């Protein structure tokens, strides 16, 4: 599951380390021979402005490349992509990763074809993101996981954690926003009920309170009488107390005469409120938050009962408005995602299934429980996604052009776009084939730079976009003929690559995000007969795969086991020849465990069962274990915690149901699989139920 | 005892207005200056009488009910602290060895920046850790430098991890002589295997002996011979590598090699994944050579260990000094220290106490100490706690003894680690107050007698301290008299809920109390034993269920006793809502008897330490 990305260590030139700068356009290193890569860094201080600019850029763009940096990838070693992961298990692992880790940087790079200069103009933006809790009435304690190796990796590329945590833009997912609004609504409704009862609750027990209440009563009475009799509401304070810390002043609140209270403690204010409730029917206590979020307290004079109600309602509505504004501003970075979704632009990523899963879980809502539900849902948010890694591996022509070099982001970039990486436009013999790409940041356009930038999400998004533009060019896409009305996403040359992502790159599994497509089920092909797999954990730690295989072969015959595969030190997968052997094994294991006789000691399996803690279960248990939100480091601990300990053979009825359900097609080499898949000629054969 | 007074800032403690940040200059220790500072730290610890410490973690509790509260027994408090200690990471470790003479407090403050670095690429010291976003934000507000911490933090391995990492460093290790003793009966295959290896070792040894006699050869001839014989060298010594496929074979080879123990030393070569990959036999030219070789290996191992141990070296220094440790948050600090630097936390609090006391025999829980002197003070806010002691006359002069340069206020990072100094200061103040009460002249005697007793009382009640709520209305309640209720159809205040319950069942005619533990679950406290059982059986019994209680149950009300809560903690169902956890516990089939099934007492107070506006 580790993303196949490697960045060559480029010499860092005059890297100025600045931790708190809100906006750092790194083209300031003028002393260098060429300009450093212009990349716009966005934090919460310049977010609003950038967002406004970005709206126009995205609207005009032909496609938008994205890239994410996270705090980790796998929450436990066994959560990595394994040989025996079925597509549904694989999805569960990606889901776990997206739910547990945080996104710390989000690169967005809109690309627009400029017919005038015959080149693409890109606008790389690097957003620092941090899940800061902005709303006080939000659910408690948002938590995320950090994988130590990932943090080290980020540190190696001089990721600025201070900027991220101090200045990162926060966000709310759509679901979170709905929930926050709902909570605000409830608070708003409850307020009316509580305010009547609350004042009576306060009993003045302490002598100090009684005296204070009496003093306040006199003061308020004096003020009220003065107000009614004199009629001349002087702005001069009727009672400036000797102590400078506390003051009352006559002001106007919502067109009504009011006494502004300053320097009182919240307890004193409660006492004042209770005094008002008991003795003054026409005076109302109002607590308000003004725009600069500093709170003010007033005692307001109302002329009648209806006027009083109006005032209370106004105050309540005002509080609600403040709450709504807070929610609006807490949405933060999600506005960028909403922008991408609403413009329905082609989204370009590199090996981006995990990225998309993160986008979904952070900005839309909790990830659906199954891959099928995810596919059904993602389309309505992001209708067009293209993965450059798919493009480079699946298209035979591009695959050949890559000359067998790795399709990791950086090496794909250097083999497809050397002119951009090395700024060597003139000497390139294939110049005709190269797409020209300019970078524009803050109206500063530049076509020549030193690419020795450090690795950041914004730069990675830029590289991804360049690869895509170049790949389109190789596919025979003529940008010069291309007009603004054409949508790249609808181009027939790209059609068969769009909305297909690698569910697992190492295994070559592809997920098809198109809904209602006739072959939408084809991505769920499987390499193995999963019903032939048994999971064993907590066997004696010193046993190696080969020894386990020997034990099993002694008990079930030399050809019974096809392979043994380590999940981690504490667990293995056993691939049996057929599913009967799975149940035989589980049955035998239980028999041996229940008997204490000499048979259980001398039996070949006793070596595996030694210690008495060995657990075994079928493949469905593995799925159950992966779906748990717990992540123990060792698989055996995980299995025990999730509690599939006693599970052996399910009911026969249950078992047949499951088998009928599972449709398994077998193709062996991953490249075959991809070709076959794209040509829609994967043979789907039902697993023979023996 | 020699002390360096290069800088000293004296201030009379207790004046809270001077208690601003950055008052003392604290030595900041990172990866780069860790090894050079280590000797100074050792000297500081040696010259001090007490060690104050304070930790900065990436989080404290994930949900409201995960916080240790008044309803917790020592065991549940411990389980809560354990859960947090295992999830969160220590980013800063402030250490302040200090000594107290009269009213003079001499402190040696250090602040270590820690970051777990997976240097051996094996998921140690930690594979991943949790962060609370709000905690990181508030750390940021205090000026915490995350870049320094992550780029330059000192890594470490716990004691348990260090012994596990021996095999992972890739260095050959001396075969453990103890492992050579026992053996199961040999099979035919074993005999054949041993015979084959024996003849191979014999031949090799013979050639070694021969080559060591022929010393007249020049380099070319000897290297040619080596080439022809196919022998390898380990350093300057000749060796033979025997590949093995199982630990059983390792065992057999080691047993066989005892025949050659005079001049052959076996080394184990660990494989990358697990277990032993090969046995390497090294030829020794003489007895002296053998001793030298073993010493070399030992040195190599020690060096390697020191490298991987990292910050734990400091923990070992503290532990071996046996000096009393002063901690503000006893349970959370010491579970964290145990989990990160000693080994995995045991499942119950008694094992934890005994495991901890083997490493740190004297730990003073400052909050406990504080309560003895000033029962109403809140320890969680150090400056406030300090000023609450103002009514006592207890001047304390602070002298910083380990800093080379005076405080530069511009360097804000110098301010990290102030807490440990404040803890030592608070401790000094409390000691002075305690001393004046006793009017004992001999301070040292006090330190040895009186103090030990307060320590033992602390360690005896390990984890127990949070159960007590010091309030005038506090009452002791048996945990049997508590009932958890959740699944209420509509949101109710505690008062409304109490009213509703009063109408629902005759058992509520007696005096009882209701409090919310989090937004999903409330607790009902009966003052006498008996009604809780009656109520629980009424809720779970079809026939007894009638009236408005039946209505409430039909709307989703559920109830459970304290056992269920304890089980939820024990099984680790740390859901965000307590109601979820209790539901899951009731569903779980696990029926393991609880080790700690005796009803325990808790202190109930009207003024429970849970503030619902904070939730």
Automatic annotation (TrEMBL), chain A:
Cofactor: a divalent metal cation
One Pfam family named in its UniProt record: CAF1
Basic and acidic residues bias: start-end ranges: 648-662
InterPro entries with a match to the protein in the record: CAF1_poly(A)_ribonucleases, RNase_CAF1, RNaseH-like_sf, RNaseH_sf
Gene3D superfamilies in the record: Ribonuclease H-like superfamily/Ribonuclease H
Region of interest (Disordered), residue spans: 642-666
UniProt family annotation: Belongs to the CAF1 family.
Name this protein carries in UniProt: Poly(A)-specific ribonuclease PARN-like
Organism whose genome encodes this protein: Camelina sativa (False flax)
Highest classification ranks of the organism: Eukaryota, Viridiplantae, Streptophyta, Embryophyta, Tracheophyta
Automatic annotation (TrEMBL), chain B:
Pfam families: CAF1 (PF04857)
Cofactor(s) needed: a divalent metal cation
PANTHER family: POLY A -SPECIFIC RIBONUCLEASE/TARGET OF EGR1, MEMBER 1 (PTHR15092), POLY(A)-SPECIFIC RIBONUCLEASE PARN-LIKE (PTHR15092:SF42)
Family that this chain belongs to: Belongs to the CAF1 family.
Protein name per UniProt: Poly(A)-specific ribonuclease PARN-like
Organism of this sequence: Camelina sativa (False flax)
């Amino acid at each position: 599951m580790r993303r196949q990305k490697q960045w060559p260590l480029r010499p860092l030139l005059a890297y100025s380390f600045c931790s708190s700068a809100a906006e750092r356009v790194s083209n300031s290193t003028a002393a260098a021979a060429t300009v450093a890569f212009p990349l716009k860094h966005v934090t919460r201080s310049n977010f609003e402005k950038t967002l406004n600019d970005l709206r126009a850029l995205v609207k005009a763009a032909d496609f938008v490349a994205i890239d994410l940096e996270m705090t980790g990838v796998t929450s436990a070693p066994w959560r990595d992509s394994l040989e025996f992961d079925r597509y549904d298990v694989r999805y569960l692992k990606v889901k776990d990763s997206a739910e547990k880790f945080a996104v710390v940087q989000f690169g967005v790079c809109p690309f627009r074809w400029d017919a005038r200069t015959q080149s693409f103009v890109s606008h790389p933006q690097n957003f620092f993101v941090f899940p800061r809790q902005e709303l006080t009435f939000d659910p408690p304690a948002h938590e995320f996981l950090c994988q130590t190796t990932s943090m080290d990796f980020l540190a190696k590329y001089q990721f600025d954690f201070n900027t991220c945590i101090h200045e990162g833009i926060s966000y709310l997912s759509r679901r979170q926003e709905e929930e926050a609004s709902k909570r605000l609504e409830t608070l708003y409704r409850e307020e009316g009920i509580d305010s009547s009862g609350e004042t009576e609750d306060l009993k003045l027990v302490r002598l100090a309170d009684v005296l204070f209440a009496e003093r306040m009563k006199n003061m308020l009475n004096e003020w009220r009488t003065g107000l009614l009799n004199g009629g001349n509401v002087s702005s001069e304070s009727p009672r400036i107390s000797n102590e400078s810390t506390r003051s009352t002043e006559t002001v106007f609140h919502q067109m009504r005469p009011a006494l502004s209270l300053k320097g009182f403690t919240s307890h004193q204010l409660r006492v004042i409120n209770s005094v008002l409730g008991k003795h003054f029917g026409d005076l109302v206590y109002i607590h308000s938050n003004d725009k600069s979020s500093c709170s003010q307290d007033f005692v307001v004079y109302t002329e009648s009962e209806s006027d009083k109600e109006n005032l209370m309602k106004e105050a309540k509505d005002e509080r609600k408005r403040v709450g709504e504004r807070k929610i609006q501003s807490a949405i933060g970075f999600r506005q960028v995602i909403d922008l991408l979704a609403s413009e329905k632009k082609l989204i370009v990523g590199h090996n981006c299934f995990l990225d998309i899963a993160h986008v979904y879980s952070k900005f839309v809502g909790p990830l659906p429980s199954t891959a099928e539900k995810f596919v059904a849902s993602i389309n309505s948010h992001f209708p067009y996604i293209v993965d450059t890694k798919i493009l480079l591996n699946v298209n035979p022509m591009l695959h050949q052009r890559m000359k067998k070099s790795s399709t990791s982001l950086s090496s794909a970039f250097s083999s497809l776009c050397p002119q951009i990486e090395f700024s060597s436009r003139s000497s390139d013999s294939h110049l005709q084939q190269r797409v020209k790409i300019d970078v524009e940041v803050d109206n500063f356009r530049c076509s020549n730079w030193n690419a020795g930038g450090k690795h950041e999400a914004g730069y990675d998004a830029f590289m991804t976009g360049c690869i895509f533009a170049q790949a389109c060019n190789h596919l025979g896409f003529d940008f010069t003929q291309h007009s603004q009305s054409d949508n790249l996403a609808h181009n027939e040359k790209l059609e068969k690559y769009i909305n297909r992502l690698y569910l697992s790159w190492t295994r070559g599994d592809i997920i098809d995000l198109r809904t209602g497509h006739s072959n939408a089920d084809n991505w769920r092909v499987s390499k193995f007969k999963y019903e032939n797999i048994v999971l064993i954990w907590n066997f004696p730690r010193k046993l190696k795969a080969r020894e386990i295989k020997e034990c099993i072969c002694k008990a079930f015959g030399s050809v019974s086991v096809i392979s043994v595969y380590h999940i981690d030190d504490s667990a293995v997968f056993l691939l049996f020849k057929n599913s009967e052997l799975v149940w035989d094994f589980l049955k035998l294991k239980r028999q041996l465990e229940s008997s204490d006789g000499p048979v259980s000691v001398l039996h070949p399996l006793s070596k595996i069962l030694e210690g008495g803690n060995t657990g075994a279960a079928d493949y469905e248990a593995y799925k159950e274990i992966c779906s748990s939100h717990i992540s123990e480091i060792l698989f055996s601990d995980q299995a025990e915690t999730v509690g599939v300990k006693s599970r052996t053979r399910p009911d026969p009825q249950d078992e047949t149901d499951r088998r009928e359900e599972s449709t398994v097609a077998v193709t062996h080499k991953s490249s075959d699989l991809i070709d076959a898949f794209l040509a829609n000629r994967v043979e789907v054969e039902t697993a023979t139920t023996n | 005892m020699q002390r360096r007074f290069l800088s000293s800032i004296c201030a009379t403690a207790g004046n809270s207005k001077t208690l601003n940040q950055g008052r003392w200059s604290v030595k900041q220790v990172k990866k780069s200056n860790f090894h050079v500072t280590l000797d100074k730290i050792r000297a500081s610890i040696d010259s001090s009488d007490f060690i104050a410490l304070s930790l900065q973690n990436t989080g404290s509790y994930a949900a409201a009910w995960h916080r240790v509260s008044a309803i917790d027994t020592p065991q549940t408090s411990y389980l809560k602290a354990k859960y947090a200690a295992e999830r969160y990471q220590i980013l800063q470790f402030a250490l302040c060895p200090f000594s107290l003479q009269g009213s003079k407090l001499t402190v040696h403050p250090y602040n270590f920046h820690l970051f777990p670095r997976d240097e051996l690429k094996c998921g140690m010291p930690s594979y991943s850790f949790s962060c609370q976003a709000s905690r990181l934000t508030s750390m940021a507000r205090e000026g915490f430098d995350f870049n320094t911490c992550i780029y330059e933090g000192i890594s470490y391995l716990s004691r348990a991890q260090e012994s596990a990492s021996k095999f992972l460093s890739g260095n050959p290790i001396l075969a453990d002589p103890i492992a050579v003793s026992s053996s199961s009966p040999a099979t035919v295959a074993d005999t054949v295997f041993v015979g084959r290896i024996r003849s191979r070792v014999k031949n090799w040894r013979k050639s070694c002996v021969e080559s060591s006699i022929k010393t007249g050869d020049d380099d070319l001839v000897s290297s040619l011979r080596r080439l022809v014989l196919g022998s390898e060298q380990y350093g300057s010594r000749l060796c033979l590598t025997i590949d093995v496929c199982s630990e059983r074979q390792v065992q057999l080879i080691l047993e066989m090699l005892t025949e050659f123990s005079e001049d052959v030393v076996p080394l184990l070569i660990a494989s990358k994944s697990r277990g032993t990959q090969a046995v390497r036999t090294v030829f020794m030219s003489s007895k002296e050579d053998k001793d030298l070789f073993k010493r070399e290996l030992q040195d190599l191992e020690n060096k390697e260990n020191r490298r991987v141990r990292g910050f734990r070296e400091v923990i070992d220094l503290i532990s071996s000094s046996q000096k009393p440790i002063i901690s503000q948050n006893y349970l959370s600090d010491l579970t964290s220290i145990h989990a990160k630097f000693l080994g995995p936390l045991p499942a119950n609090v008694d094992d934890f106490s005994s495991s901890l006391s083997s490493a740190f025999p004297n730990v003073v829980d400052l909050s406990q100490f504080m309560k003895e002197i000033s029962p109403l003070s809140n320890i969680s806010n150090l400056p406030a706690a300090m000023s609450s002691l103002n009514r006592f006359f207890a001047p304390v002069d602070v002298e910083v003894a380990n800093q080379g340069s005076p405080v530069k206020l511009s360097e804000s990072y110098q301010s990290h680690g102030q807490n440990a100094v404040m803890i030592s200061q608070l401790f000094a103040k409390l000691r002075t107050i305690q001393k004046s009460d006793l009017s004992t002249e001999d301070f040292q005697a006090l330190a040895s007698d009186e103090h030990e007793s307060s320590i033992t009382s602390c360690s005896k009640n390990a984890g127990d301290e949070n159960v007590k709520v010091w309030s005038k209305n506090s009452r002791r309640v048996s945990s049997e008299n508590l009932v958890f209720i959740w699944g209420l159809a509509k949101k109710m205040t505690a008062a409304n809920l109490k009213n509703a319950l009063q109408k629902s069942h005759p058992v509520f005619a007696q005096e009882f109390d209701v409090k919310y533990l989090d937004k999903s679950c409330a607790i009902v406290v009966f003052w006498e034993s008996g009604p809780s059982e009656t109520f629980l059986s009424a809720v779970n019994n079809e026939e007894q269920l009638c009236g408005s209680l039946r209505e409430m149950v039909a709307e989703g009300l559920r109830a459970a006793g304290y056992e269920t809560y304890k089980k939820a903690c024990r099984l680790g169902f740390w859901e965000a809502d307590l109601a979820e956890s209790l539901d899951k516990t009731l569903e779980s089939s696990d029926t393991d008897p609880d080790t700690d099934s005796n009803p325990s007492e808790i202190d109930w107070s009207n003024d429970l330490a849970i503030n619902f506006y904070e939730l």
